[in-house]
Design goal:
Chain lengths: ~325, ~325
């Protein structure tokens, strides 16, 4: 097997709190990403998915900081790398797209101007050649009459098309990794499905690796080959998508699956995980999920469970569900 | 875009028509200038002759239309006091005010926006804190007091700069200007600084809050995620995104300072329009008052129009929104 494109070990990101101390938004996250692989990162709102993405990009601003761990991108260690080194890799080796395409593109600049700016960040290109490359990038993500559209402003595109423009910008330098932070959440369902299909084809075709962030397990389940489930800053379970969905080991994953609309019988109310997500400032000393967990026992409240690995799967739980249950 | 301009021009003309009525009626209500223009010991004949000559015997609406008819031919009437065409009276004073105000508002904007952008980009740096302290000072100290302090410091104690007057002037396009000569610039420095401080404080605040807000948006995050350098982000994204409110305030400040630079002009004995309008009010010089107020209204309407055009030039959404 070829070495992973991205190898993350024990990534920890903290935000300094006003009264002193720090909130760990990302706590000991480890995973790796193979070439062409799609990993789904799921979890409730506030579980640390976006902060994980920004940490990988080296885009955590004070009062936050990456407090520890290692991130190897194409073999180069990003932890401790200087600002210029990180900038030179952003957009070229690792790129990111966001949830709201209305907010990501600058409304005052033409799409072409924004694309050329992204191009110029890593490659000096004469104007004509730059326009050719930008138009080709737009065409690749399914924007018709791409060459003419370079002169258009973002508000002249629909939401789905705007997100395609953002994707085209992210793919401009053919990065090895793209972090997609809920990029289809703001779009309607049919556009969402189209984009998912196209992105998967792109990954298969070009060997692009994707980290697809979503709070919606249903979106990720049919799309990603591997799933990471986050809870309160920790990856509580990870493994091949199909295996995790069929036989989750962590009670939280089980809860997420059970609360999917598809899991409910027609006419029955959806099942929800009781309680709410804990606040980062006041995490329990043990497993953060223990207060909401039907299986929790005294030991769960003593210390956070360490990761148990079994083949391609891993979980953080003292009393995991049976394999195959 | 052309439709947009025409529509705004029509609006501007309507505003001007309404303003002229308000100003004319308002000034009419202020008082009767006859008693000031005519010596108290004049005979009844002389009095009535003067009233007729000034057109004060006509009903108000006829006076108004006579006035408007004159204005449309570029004639604002003659000053009661100086017995000179009002327009040439104002034109004689305007350059002094214009150069003073333009220099101060431009400096305030360029320096204020630069400092504000820095303070918004690095809000926790010591220099940023110093800039914000400066802006609080600029806001809270009254202009006339700063003017006096400036004179006492730089003119009286240090003797570096003159305390008043326009200094050496040169004739350009038939008008006298101070700014092209060193001596003239030395004379402009203190009053311009005096006028600029408050505006600079405002520009600092405006730019800083704009930058702080924009730095947190996904637009900037996305640009950073694409590997675009910080300098390019500031230049291409941030400056453009904060421009709209700054242009608005620039326009308003330019207009209001041109019209009402009285305090500073008085302190620094700057022979601009401020003194002219104060005199015309105390002497009930009706033609000067009316012309001045109408020209001020015209100034604001024009600036407003230019600001709107600048908006449309910056923001494509404004352009297409107005075209529809
Ligand atoms: N700039 C910041 N300062 C302080 N705390 C922050 C900051 N950014 C994020 N956090 C905290 O980090 C935690 C994780 O946030 P994150 O945005 O990663 O959640 P998420 O999983 O992406 O949620 P969502 O699905 O709502 O996007 C949250 O509790 C949040 O309060
Ligand atoms: Mg998020």
């Amino acid at each position: 097997m070829s070495p992973p494109v991205l190898d993350v070990v024990d990534l920890t990101t903290e935000f300094a709190l006003r009264g002193g101390g720090a909130a760990r938004a990302v706590d000991g996250v480890s995973f790796s990403l193979a070439r062409g692989e799609i990993v789904g990162l799921v979890g409730e709102s506030g579980s640390g998915k976006s902060v994980t993405g920004f940490s990988l990009m080296g885009l955590i601003d004070p009062p936050g900081r990456v407090a520890g761990g290692s991130v190897r991108l194409n073999g180069a260690e990003l932890a401790g790398m200087d600002a210029e080194g990180l900038r030179a890799r952003r957009g070229r080796e690792i790129a990111m797209i966001f949830q709201d395409p209305v907010a990501t593109l600058n409304p005052l600049l033409t799409v072409g101007a924004q694309m050329r700016m992204a191009l110029a960040a890593h490659a000096r290109t004469p104007r004509r050649a730059a326009d050719d490359r930008c138009a080709a990038a737009l065409a690749r993500v399914g924007i018709p009459a791409a060459r003419d559209r370079l002169a258009a402003y973002p508000h002249e595109f629909s939401g789905g098309m705007r997100q395609r423009v953002a994707i085209a910008i992210a793919l401009l330098h053919a990065p090895s990794v793209v972090i997609a932070d809920e990029p289809t959440t703001a779009l309607d369902v049919s556009v969402q499905a189209q984009i998912l299909v196209e992105m998967r084809a792109l990954a298969a075709e070009t060997g692009l690796s994707l980290i697809w962030i979503s709070h919606d397990l249903a979106v990720v389940s049919g799309f990603a080959s591997r799933i990471l489930v986050m809870y309160a800053g920790r990856v509580v379970e990870q493994g091949p998508a199909e295996a995790v969905l069929r036989a989750p080991r962590h009670p939280y994953t089980r809860g997420l699956i059970d609360s999917l609309p598809a899991a409910a019988k027609p006419g029955e109310p959806l099942r929800q995980i009781p309680g709410g997500a804990p606040s980062l400032g006041a995490l329990p000393p043990g497993c953060a999920f223990a207060p909401r967990c039907p299986r929790a026992a005294g030991a769960c409240r003593a210390a956070p469970p360490v990761e148990t690995r079994e083949g391609a799967r891993a979980w953080r739980c003292l009393f995991p569900l049976e394999a195959g249950a | 875009m052309l439709g947009f301009v025409i529509q705004r021009l029509i609006q501007a003309a309507a505003v001007m028509a309404v303003m002229s009525v308000i100003v004319f009626v308002g000034v009419y209500a202020v008082g009767n200038p006859v008693d000031i223009v005519i010596p108290p010991d004049a005979t009844q004949d002389v009095r009535e002759e003067a009233i007729r000559r000034l057109g004060l015997d006509l009903p108000l609406w006829r006076q108004y239309f006579l006035f408007v008819g004159g204005v449309l031919q570029g004639d604002f009437g003659r000053s009661f006091i100086y017995n000179e065409p009002v327009l040439s009276l104002i034109a004689g004073r305007a350059p002094a005010t214009i150069e003073l105000v333009l220099i101060s508002v431009l400096c305030a904007t360029v320096i204020g926006v630069s400092l504000g952008v820095y303070a918004g980009y690095r809000p926790h740096a010591p220099l940023a804190r110093a800039i914000m302290a400066l802006s609080v000072l600029g806001f809270s100290v009254p202009t006339f007091w700063v003017g006096l302090i400036l004179i006492l410091t730089f003119a009286v104690s240090l003797g570096w700069l003159p305390a008043g007057g326009r200094g050496e002037t040169v004739l350009i396009l038939g008008v006298r200007w101070s700014f092209p000569t060193l001596d003239g610039l030395a004379h402009i420095a203190l009053p311009a600084l005096n006028l600029a401080l408050f505006k600079m404080a405002m520009m600092i605040r405006l730019a800083r809050s704009g930058v702080r807000e924009i730095m947190l948006t996904d637009t900037i995050r996305f640009a950073r995620a694409a590997g675009i350098s910080e300098a390019t982000i500031l230049r291409r994204h941030v400056l453009k995104l904060i421009a709209a409110p700054i242009i608005t305030v620039f326009g308003l400040e330019l207009g209001s300072t041109l019209a009402f630079a009285v305090v500073t002009e008085t302190i620094f004995s700057w022979p601009g329009m401020g003194k002219l309008i104060i005199d015309s009010i105390t002497l009930l010089d009706r033609p000067v008052m009316v012309a001045y107020l109408i020209l001020t209204a015209l100034l604001f309407v024009t600036i407003n129009l230019l600001v709107d055009l600048a908006y449309a030039a910056i923001d494509p959404r404004v352009r297409s929104g107005e075209a529809r």
